[in-house]
Each structure stands twice: as C-alpha cells, then as structure tokens.
Amino acid sequence: MMNWLQNLGRKGLLLFEGLGRAAIFFVGMVGGLGVALLRFRLTLREIYSVGVLSLVIIVVSGLFVGMVLGLQGYVNFAKFNAEESLGIFVALSLVRELGPVVTGLLYAGRAGSALTAEIGLMKTTEQLAAMEMMAVDPMRRVFAPRFLAGIISMPLLAAIFSAVGVLGGYFVGVGLLGVDAGSYWSQMQASVDFSEDIVNGVIKSAVFGVACNWIALYEGYDAVPTAEGVSRATTKTVVRSALAVLGLDFILTALMFGDI
Amino acid sequence: MPNPDAEPLVEIRDLYFSRGANSIFKGLSLDIRRGQITGFMGPSGTGKTTLLKLIGGQLFPSRGTVFVEGHNVHALSRGPLYALRKRMGMLFQSGALLTDINVFENVAFPLREHTKLPEQIIRDLVLIKLEAVGLRGARKLMPSQLSGGMARRVALARAIVLDPMMIMYDEPFTGLDPITKGTIVTLIKQLNNALGLTSILVSHDVEETMSISDYIYVISDGEVVESGTPSSLKQSSSEWVQQFLNGYPDGPAPFHYPAPEYIEDLLLGR
Ligand SMILES: Nc1ncnc2c1ncn2[C@@H]1O[C@H](COP(=O)(O)OP(=O)(O)OP(=O)(O)O)[C@@H](O)[C@H]1O
Ligand SMILES: [Mg+2]
Questions:
Q1: A143: closest CA among A78, A229, A215?
Q2: Quick check: B98 contacting A, CB < 8 Å?
Q3: Best interface-test mutation with B: which of A41, A122, A128, A133 has the largest number of B CBs within 10 A?
C-alpha cells in the first residue's frame, strides 16, 4: 500500500516535471518565432517537408472520407426524400469536424513522427549540442522554423482535405447516385456560414497544429539519446498527438457550437 | 616556442560536478595557459568530455567556477555567452556534423549563421579550411558518406572556420589511420602556433598527446593526479602515472567500474 502510494506520488511528480519542461520548451520556441519569420527560407524548407510531403496522404484520405460521407449521407437522406441536402451534410461534417480532426491525426502519423525522429537523432548524434557550441541557438535555428511551418501547414492541409472531400462527396452523390448537381452546390452555399463554419474549422486546425507540433518537437528534444529512446519518443508523439487532437476537438466544439 | 609563463586563458577553481549520485569532479582546480596546447589524459569515463562541456557552458557545476578570458562562464547571460562561444571551437568526439547538409555546407554553417559575407568569400574560406584537412575534394559528399576519420576532419575544419581563439579537441585521434593521425597531430600543432590559438586536447593516445602538448594534466577520479610538461611527466614518481602512460594492466588505477566484491556477486548475486 505504502509502495503503491509512493509510486503514485513519484509518477505524479514526474508528470508535473515533464509538463513544466514542456512549458519552458514552448516558451523558448515561441521566443524563436521572430527569427523563423525573419529567416523565412528556413521555415519554407520545413513547410515543404511537413506540408508538401503530407499532401498525398491528405488528398487521398480526404477523397475517400468525402466519398464515404456521400454514400452514407445519400442512403440516410433518401429515406426522407432529402437527397438535395447531401451537399450541406458533406460540407459541414468536413469543414467543422472531419477536416481538422482527421488531418490532425494523419499529420501526427505522417509529419509529427518524422519530426520527432529527426530531432531525436539530432540530439543523439550531438548535433544540437554542436550547434550550441557554435553559438547557434537550436531553439531559433531548428525548433522555431519547424514549429511555425507546422502551424502554417496544418490549416492549409485541413482546407485541402475538406475541399477534396467535398469533391469526393460530389462524385459519389451526384456522379454515381444521381443527386441533382445544382442542389448539391446551392444548398451547400446557402447553409455553410463563413464565420460560423469555415473560420471555426480553421481555428480548430490551427490549434491542432500548435498541439501536434509542440508535442512532436518536444518529444524529440526530450528523447533519451539512444536508438531505443528515439523509437519510444516517436511512438509517444503519435499517441499523445492523437489524444490531444481528439480531446481538444471536444473542448473546441463545445466552445464553438455548444450554445446554439 | 610558447611562453611557459603565459597568462591563463581558462581558470578552473574548485569545481564540483555530479551526475545523479555519481560525482565526477570533486574540487578540480587548474589553469590553461594562453597560446599553449594543454593535454588532458585520464581513463575512460573520468569526465574529460564533461570537463569540455563545463568549459563551454553547456553543463552547470554544482559548485566552483570556470573563468574564460576572465569571464565566469556560468554567470554569463545568453548574449555574452554566445559571443564567447563564437570564439571557442569545439571538436566533438563523434564529429557531430549536421546530417541534412553536405560537407561544404557543414563547414560553411558557422559563417552563414554569424556573418553576412558574400558567397564568393564564404566559398574561399570553406575551401581553405577543407584543404587544410585534406578534404577539399569531398565537399559534395553528405556526412553519411564519410568514414569516421573523414567526419572528424570535416568537423575540425568547421571548428576552425570562424578563426576562434581557442579550440577544444575531444579525442581527435581515435579511429584514425596512422597517416591521418599524423596529419591531424601536425595540423593541431600548426594551428596552435601559426594562429596563436589556445588548444585543449583530450585524448587517450599517450604518445600523440605527449608529443604535441606543452603541458599535461592527468585526471582521475575527479581530481588532477599529476600535471607537468611531457618530459617531467615521464619522470613522474607516481605509480599511477607510470601505469597510465605505459598502459600496465594492473596498478593503482582501477580498471573496473565500482562494483561489489566479484565473488559475492557471482555466488550470492540475484
Ligand atoms: N548524459 C549523461 N547522463 C548520466 N551520466 C553521464 C552522462 N554523460 C556522461 N555520464 C557519466 O559521466 C561520466 C564521465 O563521462 P565523460 O563522457 O565525461 O567521460 P570521458 O572521460 O569523456 O570518457 P571517454 O574517454 O570514454 O570519452 C561517466 O561515468 C558517465 O557514466
Ligand atoms: Mg569523452
């Protein structure tokens, strides 16, 4: 019993210590954002590796998710003779929820894990220590540009995901199942509100961008500098990012759409 | 010939440092003189790398001070510390090259970060340093395509590209073939004498270290066990030093990491 309590206490302390370090890390990284903006070429390179290289998986997934939405939506709306509303259903699900959330999850698996592994290896091979000794601050040179790149990329990826998804829904609903193209688009246009839906979706994905990249970069920075340590850190990144995305999504949804 | 009474560039006073329960330095005090090559020798795991990181301000001592050019390294704020580090080169044991850019860009890295020199001048400076380590032809290779010895030489070129006042070499000779080793020995000597650098050399290679150092500290168990010029060290009456210099397997220096009695461990071990 005593042992169990001790263990719990120790775990608790470690947890808070970890949170504290992650917070300090965050502040350091935010302090470097100015440099990341000034030396935008560094950030552009990272946008390429976290954003552009994630495009394939985002586009393909968006297409399939949209097609599934089209199919499910059609089957259910048809029962009420409301097939014309398919466009609203597809667009709102994507813009409000599935776009940001699924993009966040895919991003964690595709780009977050790669970021953690990259940073972890840089630590293991003393590249970060070497930079410090060359009077180059890794916070500004390595972390801040990656962080900024992630925050810029995530909303763009989510927007692409939603756009492709809407096309996927169109393809299935209008192309295959015969919903009227005019009503698909016009109902969508009439019901999707810019500030209510689009802006909130963008805010969501920006928040997920901050969370996923913070987690990925911190896990790499905090990794035990061995091969095993880096592999564990990579796993942690994917698990924690996924939980963070889903948890934050609930909170944000409650804040944004809860009081209607 | 360097002046034996040169003023100290690095002064370490009463330094204590520990890693968890493992205390690595217990009251270390020593001077590193300007313009000289100061060698540090000692068994593996005594904290030689740790000492270099303490001097560079990457680790913080639990007690004691490190002065570099009169500045207390651990009391400096970020700006002055980084300014000081620009003037300290460090060659890491592993080389620590940036793996996502090629050899040329690695050597150019400090220049690009700290200067606004035109591309042509950066190119010339990098090629001069690469020529000095014999790798001008390897400039397009990526770090993963280099052998260990080549990586070390590229790292050396990078360490000297900003023309520092002081260089710290962590095991510059290990894993090099005799010819390269000879080149590096000459290079360290030349850099030190021609550019008026101060060099700190950490190494297990007794012969090479003795041949180029002006002054040597032998450290073990957190303290300086012996110090002096190479010739005086050879004459040392300390059994410990004789064991280390000559590589006798047994003597006062323990080969083992602290452990319980062997017999007990084997018979009762669980
Ligand atoms: N990151 C670390 N965490 C905990 N202990 C460490 C760490 N790095 C080094 N140590 C311990 O500190 C001691 C000194 O290590 P250091 O790397 O300075 O030795 P060294 O003299 O450079 O050895 P070598 O000649 O083998 O390179 C060792 O006993 C090692 O176990
Ligand atoms: Mg070492």
A1: A215
A2: yes
A3: A133
Residue A150 lies in a domain: yes
Please check whether residue A248 is in contact with residue A240, taking contact to mean a CB–CB distance below 8 angstroms.
Answer: no
Q: Please indicate whether, in this complex, the C-beta atoms of B110 and A126 are within 8 angstroms of each other.
A: no
State pTM to two decimals: 0.87
Give nearest CA residue, ligand 1 atom 1.
B19
Residues comprising chain A, all counted: 260
Name the residue type at position A114.
Answer: A
The residues of A whose Cβ lies within 8 A of any Cβ of B are 121-122, 125-127, 129-137, 141
**Considering only CA atoms, which residue is closest to atom 2 of ligand 1?**
B19
- Answer whether A129 sits within 8 Å of B97, measured CB to CB: no
Any idea where the domains of chain B sit in the sequence?
A: 8-87+164-268
Q: Which CATH number fits domain B8-87+164-268: 3.40.50.300, 3.40.50.2300, 3.40.50.450, 3.40.30.10?
A: 3.40.50.300
Nearest residue in chain B measured CA to CA from A45:
B100
Count of A-B CB contacts under 8 Å = 54
Residue A158's alpha-carbon distances to A88, A97, A114, B133, B150, in angstroms, are 18, 10, 19, 49, 45
Q: How far is A122 from chain B (nearest CA, A)?
A: 8
Neighbours of A62 (CB within 10 A): 28
Give dist(CA A89, CA A76) in Å, integer.
11
Q: What is the pLDDT along chain A (260 residues), one digit of tens a residue?
A: 778 888 999 999 999 998 999 999 999 999 989 988 888 999 999 999 999 999 999 999 999 999 999 999 999 988 888 888 899 999 999 999 999 999 999 999 999 999 999 999 999 999 999 999 999 999 999 999 999 999 999 999 999 999 999 999 999 999 999 888 998 999 899 988 888 889 999 999 999 999 999 999 999 999 999 999 999 999 999 999 999 999 999 999 999 887 75
Radius of gyration (C-alpha) of chain A in whole angstroms: 21
Q: How many Cα atoms occupy the beta-carbon half-sphere of B17 within 13 Å?
A: 28
Q: Select from B85, B266, B58 the least CA-distant residue to B164.
A: B85
| Residue A16 in domain | no
Task: List the domain range (segments joined by +) for residue A61.
Answer: 21-254
CA separation for the pair B119, B112 (Å, rounded): 9
Pocket lined around ligand 1, Cβ cut-off 6 Å: B 19, 22, 24, 44-50, 93
Cα A162–chain centre separation? 14
A10 belongs to a structural domain: no
Asked if residue A12 belongs to a domain, the reply is no
In this structure, are residues B42 and B239 in contact, taking their beta carbons and an 8 Å threshold? no
Nearest ligand 1 atom to alpha carbon B43: 25
CA atoms within 13 A on the CB side of A213: 27
Could you tell me which residues are beta bridge partners of residue B68?
B10, B71
Domains identified in chain A, total number: 1
Where do runs of H (alpha helix) occur along B87-229? Answer: 103-114, 119-132, 148-160, 178-195, 206-212
| Residue B257 alpha carbon, nearest atom of ligand 1 | 29
